[in-house]
From TrEMBL:
Keywords: Signal. This is ABC transporter substrate-binding protein. InterPro entries: ABC_transpt-TYRBP-like. PANTHER family: ABC TRANSPORTER, SUBSTRATE-BINDING LIPOPROTEIN, ABC TRANSPORTER, SUBSTRATE-BINDING LIPOPROTEIN-RELATED. Pfam families: ABC_sub_bind. Residues 1-18 form the signal peptide. It comes from the Bacteria. The keyword Signal applies.
Length: 299
């Protein structure tokens, strides 16, 4: 009798859920993309969702129109799907806020993203948690980070931190900008702008900041390993998991959320650099837990 009741209750729901189709459109295969897609697929399949994964250059406009939601992974996939103008809601992941802003505009509520950039308020909160004695941040903007740097400056001002700010167009302007913003000790907040922070400039930036007794807050685990005092970042798996939650919400009738940074994140520290700078730095796990608690406490 119980089995019959369950079949009556669940029977109509199972086909409806199976009928909802998810299309994941990928870019050039990288370890980060593979990790994000694997997590996204696993979590959606655990929920019984039907999904298909296709590379961006083998995905037609008709295919994006025949599904209930599209998830793009990486900038090439995002651009391809945005140009298709699919009526299905589209969630973009593993792209910067700058690259998202360059996509063709769509009707309100039909396109959103979990961008790679960490929320400015989160970055500033980490500075205050980790380095309460330093009340000044340094920012260097480039062509792709003007908006992010402006938001960081606004968040820092709201937190009553001093701000030293410079902007460059060409890489040969970087040394002068560093000297200007680090004239007094400050926390240099790195931004994911390839014109400023890239594999050719990172070592000189870290050495210059160290000589100025100014710690660096990086945007990837690699920065902390290379010599930044600490880094704030989200793993591809965390972003894939965040995306799975958004997809499930949309398929259950919810709206696409506003564009935002990742919900999940990690903090990594470099104790060797901390000792060299004479800084007493809490453990990475402690900082991560405190930062999460702060965000969960917000209304």
């Amino acid at each position: 009798m119980l089995l019959i009741v369950l079949l009556i209750v669940l029977g109509p729901l199972a086909p409806a859920q199976a009928a909802q189709r998810i299309l994941i459109v990928t870019s050039t295969e990288t370890p980060a993309q593979t990790e994000a897609v694997s997590t996204l697929q696993a979590e959606l399949e655990e929920r019984g969702r039907a999904l298909e994964t296709r590379p961006w250059d083998q995905t037609s406009a008709e295919q994006t129109r025949a599904v209930d939601i599209v998830v793009t992974v990486g900038t090439p996939a995002a651009r391809a799907v945005a140009n298709h103008a699919s009526p299905a809601p589209v969630l973009h992941i593993l792209l910067s806020a700058h690259n998202y802003a360059s996509l063709p505009a769509r009707a309100s509520g039909r396109q959103s993203a979990i961008v790679l950039d960490q929320p400015p308020a989160r970055l500033v909160a980490l500075v205050q948690l980790a380095l309460p004695a330093l009340e000044r941040i340094a920012l260097i903007g480039g062509p792709q980070s003007e908006d992010l740097v402006a938001q960081l400056a606004q968040a820092a001002a709201h937190a009553r931190l001093g701000i030293a700010q410079a902007s460059i167009v060409r890489e040969n302007e970087l040394f002068g900008a560093l000297q200007a913003v680090l004239a007094e000790p400050a926390v240099l907040v790195a931004t994911p702008d390839p014109a400023v922070f890239n594999r050719f400039t990172v070592q000189n930036i870290l050495l210059t900041a160290f000589r100025h007794r100014s710690p660096v807050l990086g945007f990837s685990a690699a920065y902390a390993k290379a010599g930044a005092l600490l880094s704030l970042y989200s793993t591809p798996a965390q972003i894939g998991s965040d995306a799975a939650r958004v997809v499930e919400s949309v398929l259950r009738g919810g709206a696409l959320p506003a564009v935002s940074g990742p919900h999940s994140f990690e903090v990594q520290t470099n104790p060797t650099v901390a000792r060299s700078l004479g800084i007493e730095l809490p453990a990475a796990e402690t900082l991560t837990a405190r930062l999460r608690s702060l965000e969960e406490a917000k209304p």
